[in-house]
């Protein structure tokens, strides 16, 4: 007993003289990759009550999924205001109990933790802040770094927290070897360097005096101007964050953001005092994206920059993921974002296997490295080693070594697994001829999860469909046996031609029937064989996910696609249009998958200036008509609906409209936003005559580190619609002016899917004019990385290493820059651009 207590009190990690974070036990270099998870506190804590769920059961499910993804790192900033009184004393609250529980359950799964004890800031988001007793609840960050009273409260809190005995482990925080480091506080915002040094040393002394022996880290990226002052303090490591696509765009971003994560740059990495410091990424995410290639690329870039611990912010609890309310700009959950979740599993493999500081070159040449391939256009990340084969979407890639293969995880189809559902699945070898299969439910996003959050709306639904799965593993044969082993799963069958129909759950698949003494609950790594977790989501209404095509040209057929889910069995889906009193034309849609329906309207049925239609769903209960979700059918005498889906029918013209100030909204715009040094104004100027509308962009000056003001228009939907016409285009036509300013220079450029950007600087007259730029006049220029990232010291420009010629079929965005070729002496002058439209002709 004495020996055990002695061991628990020992430090478990250290930082060596070269800044390498290591385990004491074996001196092994630490490489840990995982997530933040905040359900024990703030909105997550309250929201579980709102949806009438049990906190610990919710935590159990999420920790199981986090473990299932192979993640081994956890970071949490504690909402100290919810576990302290006004004097800084630690008090027993439900939040503290849940923190204890979470740390204990993570420890059981082999997951290591970095704790950030102190967080100044509200506890409400996305709600209003809630009044609590905690001493930091009324403080601003600037008030926490000096002053005897506030420092005494912090000392009291830190001391009591570190000496707090975790109810579920029986170990104090200071003695728990699974808590491998502390980060003093969350995102400090210093305004005085000397005060920062004094504050850090004061808190380090408090932490050491309390008995914590593992390394202590401090954030250096939030206010990096004071880096020299941070490095003077007695810390063993520096913490950073990375949000390469900005935050809170309020809608899903659709673009190739691999250039944005090409490299993590640390501008002060050559400083001598920095060389012996461990590097930690406490938070990262590609906000407002659902890309399944970004996390693997970020992991690659983290290791090139010598980071040893990285945690995404933040894993969405499965019981809240239907609404994504915790942090609307982030969305990661194994069940609700399956491809993205498998991508973070791949990222963990990359992070652990990549040597410290290893570079794989620059974009796009670094899209293939070690065991990984990234394909942006097909949204596929593939990890393919001797024993592991993981993929984020359907792939034709062949496993490297099928004989040695032990672990498979994916979404969609591969050479090994053909699956009719769209949820994630895992196939793991237990022993020769016996594998464990786990299948998650199908998922459908019914609203944009990055829009304003509310528990009153559903953004995604899970449906536990029966789906056919075909498993092609030679050591299982054509007629393998399959047995359901999770709770309430009594399924048992034998495959025909390697195929079987199953529902979500956990199964044992075997060449021969399982022996009676086979232990279904045996440990398998950090999980048990019969574990399974899901959210049995009740679907209360019918959802139709459909965006009508903006326009088609006269003489073209119109293909209409929709994704549909509802509480009742769907017998028929039709596209319906009125043709007279109580008369309609009906076009039955063909079901392609669990949610997807499609129909093509022949060109002979398309006339007038627009095609206006409904989607009518016939269930075993009733008929429902969309887009207004009303009961009945347009053929009924008493049917009332004021809205229809509309596709405009336009003349065949040799132009493609990329931007039109009359029609376009700002949803597809990328602006420099909050971290850009240049102050600018954007205004859409509207007139009674719509053709006079224009977008005005104005800046007082270009005085900044980067004398450049760039914005982009994303064109993914336009390009998809206009693929046939793109090959015929020969020039860009810009209709613009400088308003009252003569000779305003502006660079008009088009960004391709491979990251290349081709552009030309033109001069705008004071009056509106059409300016033609033939493609042959375009030169390769640098891409401006938007949205701007945090921390803001990341790269502003990227020049793709690709050397392909310009191809209009690969256009992805318009890049408009005020700055190129403007003379330095003109940086102090106002800049004005007014854009009416941009076409390809």
Automatic annotation (TrEMBL):
InterPro entries of this UniProt entry? GH (IPR017853), Glyco_hydro_5 (IPR001547), MAN-like (IPR045053)
A GO molecular function annotation here is: hydrolase activity, hydrolyzing O-glycosyl compounds
Gene3D superfamilies, alphabetized: Glycosidases
Q: Name one Pfam family in it.
A: GH5_mannosidase
User: Which residue windows are coiled coil?
Assistant: 452-479
Q: Which reaction does it catalyse?
A: Random hydrolysis of (1->4)-beta-D-mannosidic linkages in mannans, galactomannans and glucomannans
Q: Which residues form the Glycoside hydrolase family domain?
A: 132-202
The Enzyme Commission number assigned here is: 3.2.1.78
Key words, A-Z:
Coiled coil, Glycosidase, Hydrolase
* Superkingdom, natural source: Bacteria
This chain's protein is named: mannan endo-1,4-beta-mannosidase
């Amino acid at each position: 007993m004495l020996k055990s207590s002695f061991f628990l009190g020992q430090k478990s990690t250290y930082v060596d003289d070269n800044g390498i974070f290591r385990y004491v036990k074996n001196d092994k270099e630490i490489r840990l990759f995982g997530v933040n998870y905040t359900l024990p506190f703030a909105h997550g804590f309250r929201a579980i009550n709102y949806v009438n769920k049990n906190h610990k059961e919710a935590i159990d499910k999420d920790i199981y999924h986090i473990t299932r993804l192979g993640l081994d790192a956890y970071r949490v900033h504690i909402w100290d205001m919810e576990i302290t009184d006004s004097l800084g004393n630690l008090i027993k609250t439900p939040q503290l109990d849940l923190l204890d529980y979470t740390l204990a359950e993570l420890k059981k799964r082999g997951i290591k933790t970095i704790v950030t004890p102190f967080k100044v800031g509200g506890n409400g988001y996305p709600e209003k802040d809630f009044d609590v007793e905690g001493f930091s609840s009324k403080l601003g960050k600037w008030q926490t770094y000096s002053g005897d009273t506030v420092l005494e409260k912090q000392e009291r809190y830190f001391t009591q927290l570190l000496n707090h005995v975790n109810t579920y482990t029986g170990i104090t925080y200071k003695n728990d070897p699974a808590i491998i480091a502390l980060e003093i506080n969350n995102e400090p915002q210093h305004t005085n360097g000397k005060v920062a040094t004094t504050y850090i040393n004061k808190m380090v002394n408090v932490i050491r005096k309390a008995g914590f022996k593992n390394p202590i880290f401090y954030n250096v990226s939030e206010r990096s101007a004071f880096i020299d002052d941070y490095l003077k303090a007695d810390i063993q490591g520096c913490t950073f964050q990375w949000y390469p696509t900005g935050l809170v765009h309020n809608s899903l971003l659709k673009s190739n953001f691999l250039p944005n994560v090409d490299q993590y740059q640390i501008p002060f990495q050559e400083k001598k005092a920095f060389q012996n410091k461990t590097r930690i990424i406490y938070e990262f995410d590609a906000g407002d994206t659902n890309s399944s290639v970004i996390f693997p690329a970020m992991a690659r870039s983290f290791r090139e920059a010598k980071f040893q611990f990285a945690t995404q912010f933040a894993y969405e609890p499965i019981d809240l993921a239907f609404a994504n309310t915790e942090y609307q700009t982030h969305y990661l959950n194994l069940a609700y974002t399956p491809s993205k979740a498998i991508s973070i599993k791949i990222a963990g493999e990359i992070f652990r296997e990549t040597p410290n500081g290893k570079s794989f070159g620059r974009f796009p040449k670094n899209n293939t490295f070690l065991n990984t391939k990234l394909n942006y256009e097909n949204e596929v990340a593939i990890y393919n080693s001797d024993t592991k084969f993981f993929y984020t979407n359907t792939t034709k890639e062949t496993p490297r070594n099928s004989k040695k293969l032990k672990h498979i995880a994916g979404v969609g189809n591969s050479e090994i697994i053909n699956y009719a559902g769209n949820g994630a699945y895992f196939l793991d070898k237990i022993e020769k001829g016996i594998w464990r299969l786990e299948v998650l439910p199908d998922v459908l996003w019914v609203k944009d999860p990055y829009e304003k959050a509310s528990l009153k709306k559903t953004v995604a639904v899970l449906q536990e469909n029966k789906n056919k799965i075909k498993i092609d593993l030679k050591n299982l044969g054509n007629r393998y046996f399959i047995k359901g082993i999770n709770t309430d799963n009594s399924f048992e069958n034998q495959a025909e031609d390697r195929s079987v129909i199953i529902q979500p759950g956990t199964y044992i698949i075997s060449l021969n029937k399982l022996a009676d003494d086979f232990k279904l609950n045996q440990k398998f790594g950090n999980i048990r064989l019969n574990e399974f977790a899901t959210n049995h989501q009740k679907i209360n209404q019918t959802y139709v996910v459909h965006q009508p095509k903006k326009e088609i040209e006269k003489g073209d057929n119109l293909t209409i696609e929709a994704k549909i889910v509802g509480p009742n069995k769907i017998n028929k889906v039709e596209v319906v249009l009125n043709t007279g009193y109580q008369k309609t034309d009906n076009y039955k849609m063909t079901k392609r998958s669990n949610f997807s329906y499609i129909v093509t309207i022949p060109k002979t049925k398309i006339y007038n200036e627009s095609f206006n239609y409904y989607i009518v769903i016939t269930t075993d209960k009733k008929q429902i008509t969309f887009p207004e979700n009303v009961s009945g059918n347009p053929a009924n005498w008493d049917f009332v609906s004021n809205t229809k889906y509309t596709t405009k029918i336009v003349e065949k013209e040799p132009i493609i409209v990329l931007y039109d100030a009359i029609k376009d909204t700002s949803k597809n715009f990328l602006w420099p936003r909050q971290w850009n040094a240049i102050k600018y104004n954007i205004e859409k100027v509207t007139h009674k005559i719509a053709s006079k509308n224009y977008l005005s962009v104005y800046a007082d000056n270009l005085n900044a580190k980067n004398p450049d003001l760039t914005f982009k228009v994303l064109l993914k939907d336009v390009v998809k619609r206009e693929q046939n016409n793109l090959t015929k285009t020969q020039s860009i036509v810009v209709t613009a002016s400088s308003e009252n300013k003569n000779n305003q220079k502006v660079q008009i450029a088009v960004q391709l899917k491979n990251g290349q950007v081709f552009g030309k600087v033109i001069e705008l007259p004071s009056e509106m004019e059409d300016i033609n730029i033939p493609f042959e006049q375009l030169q390769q220029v640098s891409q401006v990385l938007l949205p701007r990232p945090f921390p803001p010291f990341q790269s502003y420009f990227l020049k793709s290493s690709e050397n392909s010629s310009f191809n209009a079929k690969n256009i992805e965005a318009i890049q408009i820059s005020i700055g190129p070729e403007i003379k330095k002496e003109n940086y102090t002058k106002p800049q004005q651009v007014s854009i009416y439209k941009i076409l390809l002709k």
